[in-house]
Design brief:
This protein is of the alpha+beta class and 366 residues long. It contains nine helices and 20 strands. The chain has two domains: 229 residues, Rossmann fold; 118 residues, Nucleic acid-binding proteins (OB fold (Dihydrolipoamide Acetyltransferase, E2P), Beta Barrel). Helices cover 25% and strands 33% of the residues. The structure holds adenosine-5'-triphosphate (ATP) and magnesium ion.
Length: 366
Amino acid sequence: MLAQVVLKDVNKVYGSLYAVNNVSFTVQDGEFVALVGPSGCGKTTTLNLIAGLITMSGGEIAIGDRMVTDLDPKDRDIAMVFQNYALYPNKTVFNNLAFPLQMRKQPKDVIDKKVREAAKVLDITHLLDRRPRELSGGQQQRVALGRALVRDPAVFLMDEPLSNLDAKLRVQMRSEIKRFHHNLNATIVYVTHDQLEAVTMADKMAVMHGGVLQQYDTPANVFSNPVNTFVASFVGSPAMSLIPVEVVTTGAATILKGTSGWEMPLSAANARKAQGSSNGKAVLGARHSTLKLHKAAKPDAVPGKIHTVEPTGDITFAQVLVDGEVVNISLEPSVAIQPDERVWLEFDQDRMHLFDATTTMALKAA
Ligand SMILES: Nc1ncnc2c1ncn2[C@@H]1O[C@H](COP(=O)(O)OP(=O)(O)OP(=O)(O)O)[C@@H](O)[C@H]1O
Ligand SMILES: [Mg+2]
């Protein structure tokens, strides 16, 4: 069955609050899509609307080739995996997996076959006789995945399934869920507040903020072409640095001017973008890996002062204060720098970002 999921102008209103505000996107058959954004941005609400656990205030949802807007959750051909796995404590792993099939009155030999197949995919065959309390967190999460898997749904819906696990196990289960997706070619909608999980696992990410879908694209495109300052600073770690600037055009030259007076000439391509800013007010963005540190003044480099230095072993991160804004940079561990040291940052014209200060949207060349 074709298992694409289509959301069209989906809304959920609580009183005067738009928990989900006119959200539209399409998950293709076999695609892994991560819904990502800060707490309260509407991720769980969107997932629950797809599942049919709550009713929409407006819009349409289709799963496969069926409109499901008026269907009960049980008729939508979906399976959910939650943060708290909600396994039955008194049932063995086998019976936890078998239960959804027993509920559907499937024949015993079919149940047995499906449970063993799922157990094999998730590498929990040796655990089938145990009870949930005799399992580690990661094993319990695999059983929860297995319980969704035996139902052979058109779409898997997962809400922060890894957030109860410790950091190391989370990274391990991250690759296991990715493997699960790859092996089954399953359609998965996966909710997480962790942008790194979304970037590393998903084919596409839907970045939400305040109930509104900000950007829907591959992680690579979201990372390299964020549509606004929210997405720019949410995706990537450490975050993209954002500095308010003024755009000044004199004759043929367009420059950026910092609030402390520094000036940076722009390439022709960036000048065309910057000239589109409202009232000449823009925001300059740069990722840590694109900034070059100088210990002496350099023409066109931006002056700043080292705030903090954070060695991590193979890479050292530093925060530089520029016009009172924190700018993240990364350095070879061999570079010796001290807090309060004066430094100059060289921006890469091909990899810097320009946003409109008023609308926060990325500036495009006219
Ligand atoms: N039943 C409800 N009644 C009223 N407001 C609600 C209800 N459920 C959710 N909300 C509100 O809707 C908004 C979105 O909530 P939602 O649970 O979708 O956020 P989320 O992105 O999943 O956040 P988190 O990362 O914290 O889980 C929040 O402001 C929340 O307070
Ligand atoms: Mg949530």
